Amino acid sequence: MSPLRKCCQAYRLFFICVALLSIGACQSHSYNETVYPFLINDEQIDTSKPKRLIISHENFGAPSKNYLQAYERKIDAVVEETLKKNNYTIINNSDYRKFWREAKRKHGSPYNASTSQVNATAFQLVVRQTLNKLKEANIADAIIFTDLVEQPVVFQGNNNHLAKWHGVSRRPGVKGSGAVSTEFDWSQSVPAASLRIIIYDIDGKLLFKSIGGLEVTRYIDTRKVSGRFARRDKLFTKSSNIYEGVALALHPFIVAEGYPQQ
Known about the structure:
Blueprint: H1 3-14, E1 39-40, H2 42-48, E2 52-55, H3 66-69, H4 72-85, E3 89-90, H5 94-107, E4 111-112, E5 117-118, H6 120-137, E6 142-153, E7 163-165, E8 168-170, E9 173-175, E10 190-201, E11 206-216, E12 218-221, E13 229-231, H7 239-250
Parallel strand pairs: 2-3, 2-6, 9-12
Antiparallel strand pairs: 1-11, 4-5, 6-10, 7-8, 10-11, 12-13
């Protein structure tokens, strides 16, 4: 079985929350109890020595929610900045986009918007052809998928309400001049955004995967009497949250300051 086929099998398993297989080392660091158990293939990284990286314009699977897509470039800019500071070269992805389009025309789209379904076979073929073209052109050493994903969280604690997920802790945002009602239902779950990083080398071998939390995408609107959360008008306005989430998502592919070595 080809390395790329193994990667695509891992891709399918990912979406049913089963750990990816055939990875070298698998460790986690202790940031808080919700930190993601990252996967890193140290042996392959040492072999590939990837330094020329392309940040993918496509997700590893389904696209991000519509209201998150508007912020993808903002998050990618911080990913690029972090990688450059650690001596990685970020390659313009115009050729990658062209190769991806050509592969989609030949094999079909990996994602069907009308059914919200991912076609794993088409994804495998598109990625294989794209990587082959990049390798032939000697353009890059690895591809980085930077997906904005969501998961439900709950603000816990009697007084100091905190939501914890993917290594971060966040307090609830509040809009309006009024106080949060004492009758507010804190057991409600709300969506929280995270950055998922997945890195493949040019031969289709999985090098790294992790997730770092960013921020909750809802706030409490005290102007309403419903006692429920509402979607925030603007997201990712606090740069420290973005940098923290990116650092977590890339650790220990890049060892972030303040986090332990492997």
